[in-house]
Amino acid sequence: MRRRSFLPVFAGLLVAASMPPWGWWPLGFVGIAMYGSVAVRRKEKSFSTGSLFAAAWFLPSMAWMWFLTAPGYLVAILIFCVMHGIASYIASKLSTNDNSHRSALIICHSLAEVVRLSFPFGGVPLATLAIGQVSGPLADLAPLMGVIGISTATLYLALTHRKFRAICIVGVLVLLGNTWNSTHSTGRNLNLSIIQGGGEQGTHAVDTNPRVVFDVHMAATKTLQPNQERDAVIWPENAISITNHGLFFDSPEYTEIAQEAKRLNVPFVVGITEDAGPRQFTNAQVVVNIDGSVSGRYDKVRRVPFGEYMPLRPLLKALGAPTDLVPRDARAGDSRGWLDVADTRASVAISWEIFFGGRVNEGIADGATFIINPTNGSSYTWTILQTQQIAASQLRAREQGRDVAQISPTGFSAFIDSSGVVHDRTSISEQHVVERSIQLRSGRTVYSRMGNAVYIWALLIAFAWLARRRARAFRIGAS
User: From 3.40.50.300, 3.30.450.20, 3.40.50.880, 3.60.110.10, which CATH number describes the 184-444 domain?
Assistant: First the structure.
């Protein structure tokens, strides 16, 4: 019994090891294949097998949540274990033999990963199978099929009994995604300077003087000298916090930013938070032009549960949870995800939003030529979340055929080109200014035009087909 419990746990740990920051992507296939063998042999224990596998997969690879909310971390892991336990159980009920059981495992676990993109609390799409494959060849599927396609292909290659056919099918798709994504260069480059102010990890906004955060970013910015080839300066999320119940436009921070924009003769894209009453605040990215005008604003739409708003606040408070770490809830924005910067359009995904392909795709659909991901990972100890966010930026770059600029106050900041290659990644906690020329691109990939819906429907149709075949087999057996 111990051996039977050990195998799915060990398989899950192998999948966890394929995730950043470890990133040993081949182990993802090994772990899933090992789990599949156990699941097929232990049909009568399918729920516990799937749950143990998921627990070992998510406990290490989502440990970053512990520093955000320990109760939330445990609840999220429990929910994900139940999801994959149910997937394993349903797969066992849909199967008529070992081969059909493997097919059912592919489809059911793919659907479990689809559910994680939107549930609970709007979705927690970290430690996905796609993130674990970002450094492997399956990442080439991103412009064709996105995260759902990569996750399904990973399960397909690891679990199917027809390996040669699977390798041929996926291989052709990988070759296609690697050589063609239907996007092209506009013939123009953009020279960007991104500012990482530096500072200690594991800090919370309620314990930090917001002026200190502003000052370290301003100090780094003042090291820049005017340069005719520079097109814009970008600051990270939450770099400017207005806490006196006023507006950014009326603050001394605005005046200093406007002065720097004039001195360097380029627009600034800066992350601000403003009070929105006693119980709410806003989290936005704004463009400050050379003349001091504020020409664009994007308010974050997808908020971080337990980080920017507190789900079930009354209940958690009654249970003694530290709800005071998020004393007010962020007010969700409702605008399209883009800003016009230096005579071009940028798709903007603030922090958490970079994990959601649809948020980035919204700006691309409206004509964006590159992607900005201003973020703030200073609340998290270790680098699990930060490395997975870099991986998510790599996936978004591949999905959309666009360069990405990721900017964080304490790291990681980096540029990712449209092929998913990471350039100039900073270190954690250092103060650093990174300047790079990025390529502006136009056109839309297959994934950008189709989105996730078509692949979700394909999985649902495959599930219905398996259910129908199982029902037919049952009727024939009964007769």
Answer: 3.60.110.10
